[in-house]
Each structure stands twice: as C-alpha cells, then as structure tokens.
Design brief:
By secondary structure, this protein is of the alpha/beta class. The chain folds into three domains: 2-130, 3-Layer(aba) Sandwich (Cobalt-precorrin-4 Transmethylase, domain 1), CATH 3.40.1010; 137-236, Methyltransferase, Cobalt-precorrin-4 Transmethylase, Domain 2 (2-Layer Sandwich); 251-290. It is built from ten helices and eleven strands. It has helices at 40-48, 57-66, 83-94, 115-124, 137-144, 161-169, 187-198, 251-259, 264-275, 279-290; strands spanning 2-3, 24-27, 51-54, 73-76, 98-101, 127-130, 151-156, 177-182, 203-207, 215-218, 232-236. The strands form two sheets. It has a six-stranded mixed β-sheet, sandwiched between helices. It has a five-stranded mixed β-sheet with strand order 7-8-11-9-10, sandwiched between helices. Helix 6 (161-169) crosses helix 7 and helix 9 (264-275) packs across helix 10. The protein is elongated and about 80 Å long.
Length: 291
C-alpha cells in the first residue's frame, strides 16, 4: 500500500463496499488472455468501487459482465486523455469515491495509461494502492528459459530504425536479460536488427501469453515471422562475458594464430569466445594485420 503525504488513519471510509474499502484510487490488473487470470481481490475492488476508469468502455464492459458486475460508472482515460479528463477523476476522488483504474489488459501504467493521474494523486495526498496481478513481463521471462535473476524491462521497442538500433546497441555490454514488448507487424524487422548487432545472443519470442495459442519461439535468421500475430514479448539474452580487452590488446593472439595458418573465421570465433569481443570486429582487424 502507498499512502502519499499523510497517514492512512486520516482517510475516512465514506463509501463502504462489500469489503469496506476506503475511498481512493485502486490500480487493478486485468486478464491478459485467460479470463480467469484475475485475483479475488481485484474482483472485490471492482464490485465495491463507485467508478471504473478504463481505456475502452467496451473492453472493460465485457470483463465486468463476465463477472456479473453491473451498473458501474465507467470513465475513459487513455493515451488521448486531456487535462479535463484527469481533473474529472480527481473530482470523484476528492469527493470520497472509490475509483478503480484498469487497462484493457494487464497491469495499469506498465506501457499503459495512468502515470500522470497517479502522479497527481500522490501530489494531492489521496489514498493510492496497487494490486498485484496479471502482466506479460514475468511469464515471458519465465517461458524464455533465459536467466531471470537480473532483468530489465524496456517497454515497446522503437518503431524508427535509428532509434531501434540505438536501443539495441546500448545492450551490447550489459549482462542482464532484457524484456521488450513488440508489435507483430514489426517483430521480424526488429529481430533482424537485434541479431545483426548482438550476434550470438539468444532471442526468444513469446506470444499470446495465457491464451489458446501461447507459444515460445527461439529466433534464428531462417524463420519467417511475417505472419506472426497476437500480443508479443521479445526476450534477449544478456552479455555473458565482461569485455575488458580492446582490439589492440588481442593483436598478439591474432598474429600468433595467423602464423599457425588458422583460418580467419576460426580465429575470429576462437578469440570472440575468449574475450567477448564481436566476431566481425576481430575478423576485420585480422584482415588489416594480415595485409
């Protein structure tokens, strides 16, 4: 529970629901696929609240109907929301209403709307709490089979080519696992760029988590991803070696291998394995030295 700038004892429970929830803003996760992936506490809040703030009233309406939650006032708050929409919600909160904020699927604020509203709620000292629940990040990490002790979530991968390359390039010397959301229309192009820059790193594509066609795909350049559909998460292996050598540092190794008649390809693979440097850079440097 998070209470901003005040003590919980100062809150007056002016609107008591079935489970005596105090007035304030509740961040409520919703299913990302299977309709039963919702907590009992989330259902309690949705039943007790006075207002449901949502991205799309039709999507949220279907969820509420499935659990026989009827006659709830719904307010749209999405990426196109204006200041007046935020102020309308704050008015309800300041009147002592119980307000539930949901996204179409998953946990609110995680690549979904709500951040500006939460900042203002904290600023005004209104009661705020976030319920644990469904999201795509952790299941994707678990299903990938990649190390999960340290990871970074990067939101959606950029759609512009230069921005995408800049993001992927920034991962080169980082050892944690990376998790990104991606559009099915862009995943093929993004994986090509990731493979080009990160080379041997493992790339896993997890799609349709908790749905009928849930699938984990190990990416390689021979795969055709053009027809891939659904909600997609890309998980990328971290750098397994600490790079503490430059190309100049490995020149004696290159020269020694060349004198033994080893092929440039085998040489590049061997040195890259030992140092963590990129094979392409080693290969080009070896050609320069050979010449």
């Amino acid at each position: 529970m998070v209470v901003a700038m005040t003590d919980i004892t100062q809150f007056q429970n002016t609107n008591k629901g079935e489970h005596d929830f105090c007035s304030g803003l509740y961040l409520v996760p919703t299913p990302i696929g299977n309709l039963r992936d919702i907590t009992l506490r989330a259902l309690d809040v949705l039943k007790a609240c006075d207002v449901v703030v949502c991205e799309d009233t039709r999507v949220t309406g279907k969820l509420l109907k499935a659990y026989n939650i009827t006659d709830k006032k719904k307010i749209v708050y999405n990426d196109h929301a204006q200041e007046k929409d935020k102020n309308r919600i704050l008015t309800y909160l300041n009147e002592g209403k119980i307000v539930a904020l949901v996204s179409d699927a998953g946990t609110p604020l995680i690549s979904d709307p709500g951040y500006k509203l939460v900042v203002e709620v904290i600023k005004q000292g209104i009661y705020l709490t976030a319920l644990p629940g469904a999201n795509a990040i952790l299941p994707a990490l678990q299903l990938s089979g990649l190390p999960s002790d340290q990871f970074t979530f990067g939101g959606f991968l950029p759609s512009k080519d230069k921005a995408l390359r800049d993001v992927v390039d920034s991962l080169k010397n980082r050892s944690e696992t990376f998790v990104f959301y991606e559009s099915p229309k862009r995943v093929a192009k993004s994986c090509v760029v990731i493979k080009e820059i990160l080379e041997e790193r493992s790339i896993k594509i997890i799609r349709e988590i908790s749905k009928l066609y849930e699938e984990m795909i190990k990416y390689d350049s021979t795969l055709d991803l053009s027809s891939l559909k659904g909600e997609i998460v890309v998980v990328i292996e971290g750098q397994s070696k600490t790079i503490n050598m430059s190309l100049n540092d490995i020149e004696p190794m290159i020269i020694n291998a060349l004198n033994k008649g080893e092929s440039l390809k085998d040489l590049s693979n061997m040195i890259a394995d030992k140092t963590g440097l990129k094979k392409k850079d080693i290969y080009n440097h070896a050609i320069t030295l050979k010449d």
